[in-house]
# Entry
Amino acid sequence: MSSKLFERIYKVVSSIPEGKVATYGQVAALAGHPGAARVVGWALHSAPEPLALPWHRVISATGKSSLPERSARQLQRALLEQEGVRFDRQGRVDLATFQWQGHEPAPKAS
DNA sequence: AAGGTGACCAAGG
DNA sequence: TCCTTGGCCACCT
# Structure
């Protein structure tokens, strides 16, 4: 079994709602470990299949997929588009529109 | 025990 | 807007 941190990460990822995305850094922060964005990548890379996590809803802070293999990136994009997430011409997601606002403070209000 | 690696990120040029 | 650089943190030699 992996550390508590991994378990927290998996829990956060599994709570990302359909049609929304979260960044690695965001997941790390919500898991109680801000700054450990790379660990989130590692955790997902080594995530056991049985967990059936919505890993495709986790993308980089630039709005792009960070997956190393092209085929995997295409799959991620297909899964997201299927949920209503739209990509621009450069294959990026508009975070201002689709980023999950879990417990994060609202963008602004006044 | 020390150094390398990776599904990262923000700031500068 | 793209590329580079330094800093991050846990896992694996």
